[in-house]
Design goal:
The chain is built from six helices and five strands; from the N terminus they run βαβαβαβαβαα. The chain has 167 residues and is α/β, with parallel strands linked by helices. It has one domain: HUPs (Rossmann fold, 3-Layer(aba) Sandwich). A five-stranded parallel beta sheet has the order 3-2-1-4-5, with helices on both faces. 30% of the residues are buried. It binds adenosine-5'-diphosphate.
Length: 167
């Protein structure tokens, strides 16, 4: 049984994350999505809301489970019985960032191996950070997030609609 942990903030989960998860399922038997609370970042959405959106996105996929965790990612991977960590790579800065985390994780627990998938051209520009900017300014979210999340977020917009024409 190959079980991987896909750790991140998922604030919110985007089509980029979802693409990596679908492709990850061709490599691993099970993937645990770990919503990590240990960064200094101030989130836009509560951990429970983030979890609900991910659970809904994979309601028909029993091989994906979603957990909220605090503390070291490698420790959480051990706790859930995952020998592998899955991460996505969009660009050279992602690589530089991931490389340091990988080296630190290996230093902390040499038994856990991290696998990387390159993002597709369609989603390589999508980040939760940019999506949060679009949300702050009430822009269109089509193509960036799954429809059920877009629906929930538009309900929070003034008038329930994004500003401007649909892209
Ligand atoms: P973190 O808070 O650790 O940066 P994120 O929630 O932003 O985590 O992302 C989790 C993982 O998903 C990271 O490996 C990140 O590089 C990857 N990821 C984020 N957006 C995309 C995307 N558009 N395509 C591929 N991978 C992505």
């Amino acid at each position: 049984m190959k079980r991987a942990l896909f750790p991140g903030s998922f604030d919110p989960i985007t089509n980029g994350h979802i693409e990596i998860l679908h492709r990850g399922l061709t490599l691993f038997d099970e993937i645990i999505v770990g919503i990590g609370l240990n960064t200094a970042k101030q989130p836009m959405f509560s951990p429970e809301q983030r979890k609900k959106w991910i659970v809904e996105a994979f309601a028909d996929e029993p091989r994906i489970q979603v957990h909220i965790y605090t503390g070291l990612t490698v420790r959480f991977a051990r706790e859930v019985g995952a020998r592998f960590i899955l991460r996505g790579l969009r660009s050279a800065p992602d690589y530089e960032y991931e490389r340091n985390i990988d080296l630190l994780n290996k230093y902390l627990d040499s038994q856990i191996e991290t696998f990387y998938l390159l993002s597709s051209p369609e989603t390589s520009f999508v980040s939760s950070t940019l999506v949060r900017e679009v949300i702050r300014f009430h822009g269109h979210l089509e193509g960036l997030l799954p429809p059920h999340i877009i629906r929930d977020i538009y309900a929070l917009y003034p008038g329930g609609k994004p500003i401007g024409n649909t892209p």
